[in-house]
Amino acid sequence: MRKKNTSKKTETMQVEAYAISKINGFLLEPDPLTSLPQEHEFFRKLDRMRWSTPRYFGTEKFRAIIDDFSSFYLTQVAKGDQAELNDIHEYLKDERVARLARLTLGTLMQAYVLGSPHEAGAGNVVPRIPAGVAVPMAYISELLDVPPILAYQDYCLANWERVDKGQPVELGNIMILQYLLGGLDEAWFILVHTDIEARMGKVPDAFLIAFRGVHANNVALVANGLTTIKVGLDAMNTTFLRMPEYCSSDIFFERVRPYIHGQEGNPALPNGVIYEGVSEKPFSLRGESGAQSSIIPLCAAGLGVVYPDDWLSQYVREMHAYMPRGHRRFIADVVALEKHFSIRAFVDKHKETHPFLFDAFHVCLEAGREFLIQHAAFTEEYIHRHSAKSTAANPHNIGTGGSDFMNTLLRHADCWKLEIENIRIGVS
C-alpha cells in the first residue's frame, strides 16, 4: 500500500467495513441467530440436531443419527426439489444463517470423527465425514471463505445469545447455542472467551483512533486510543482469570477438549480425514483454538510486536485463515498502517515531552504479555499436566490447533517481552 493511499485510508477507515463492531469488536453483530429459518426441513432438522446433541451423545447411536441426517440431505435436499435447494442457498447468503448452520455442521463433524464418549473411550476414531454433512459444510465454508472445520469463529464468536437483550454481552447475561457433551464446564469455557471478546470490543476502533492521531500529530488522539486499548486488555485479563470458577480442568480435558481437536498434528488422525462427496484427498485442518482469535494478532500488529520469521510466524499466518475474512483484512490493513504511522515510533518520539504516552504504551505491552503468560499457565493446568489421561485422540502435549502449544505460547510471550525491553531502552 503506497503512503498516499495509506494516508487516505487512515482518515476514512471504519471497523464496520470489516464486519467488526465498535462496541463488541470481533463478536458477530447483530447478535447470532438463536434458530435457523423454519421454512425448510433441512434447517429444522439442523436445529433439532443442535438442540439434541448432548442427549444423542448419551447413547451409542450418535454416528447412526448423523448418518441418517446425511442420508436425508443427499436424497431429499441435494437430489430433491431444485427450487427448494436454491432457496436454502439464498438463506445461506445471510451470514448469520450461514454461521449458525456452520456451527452445527462443524459440531456434527467433530462428533462423528471422535464418536460418543463410549466410542472415544474405546479409541474408535473414524477418519471420514459422511457426504450429507461434509458437502453442506464445504459449501457454507466456501461462502464464508474459511476452512471447512469447526473454528473459534463458530465455537466462541457466534455461539452465544443474551438472556436480557437490553444488557451487555457479559458473563451472567449470555448462554451458548450449541453444546457437544453439555454441562456448565463446557458452557463456561466458551462464554469466558465470548466475554473476553466483548471486553476487547472497543479496541479495534481504538487502534484506528491512535493511527489517526499519529497521522495528524495529535497527542490527545493517540492517548485516547492507547487508553482504550489498555482498559480493554486489563478487562480481558480480569475475565480470563475467572476461567476456574465453573470450568474444572479435569472435566475440560476429558469432556470438552477432545471434541474441538483438529486433524493437523492429531496422532489419532495421521492421514487426515476424508470429506465424502467433497474430495477424495484427505483434509488435514487445524482445530478450534484461541490462536484463531483476532485479538492478540491485532494488538501485536498495532503495537509493532514482531515475531521471528520462523515456525511461529508460519503458525500465526496459518491461523489467520480460520478467522472471518473481514477480520483477516482488518489485521492486514493494520499491519500496513503501522508501517507508515507507527504508534510505537510516535510514543518514542514524544516520550520526553509526553511521558504518559510512553507509560500507556508500555502498560499495553505488559498486559498483552500477561495474557499470554496466564494462557500458558492455564494450558499447563487444564491440559499439559494430564499426561496420565493422554490418548492418541486427546494428547496432552499437542494443542487443538495442532501445535506444541506450551512452546508456542511462551514463544509469543517472549516476543512481547523483547518489545517491552526494547522500548525501555529506545531500540526501534
CATH architecture of the largest domain: Up-down Bundle
User: How far is the first residue's CA from the last residue's CA?
Assistant: 22 Å
Shape descriptor: globular
Could you tell me the strand content as a percent range? under 5%
Number of strands: 4
Instruction: Please give the domain count.
Output: 2
What does this structure look like?
There is one protein chain. The protein is an all-alpha fold and 428 residues long. It has two domains: 1-30 and 169-260 and 288-428, Up-down Bundle (Methane Monooxygenase Hydroxylase, Chain G, domain 1); 32-148, no CATH class. Helices cover 58% and strands 2% of the residues. It contains 18 helices and four strands. Strands 1-4 form a two-stranded parallel ribbon. Helix 9 runs antiparallel to helix 11 (219-240). The model has no long low-confidence stretch (mean pLDDT 92).
Could you name the key traits of this structure?
single chain, 428 residues, mainly alpha, Methane Monooxygenase Hydroxylase, Chain G, domain 1, 2 domains, two-stranded parallel ribbon, two-stranded antiparallel ribbon, 4 strands, 58% helix, 2% strand, globular
Task: Summarize, please.
The protein has helices spanning 3-12, 41-57, 62-78, 82-91, 95-114, 117-121, 131-144, 152-155, 184-199, 203-215, 219-240, 249-256, 295-303, 311-320, 325-340, 343-349, 355-384, 405-425, and strands at 128-129, 161-162, 174-175, 274-275. By secondary structure, the chain is mostly helical.
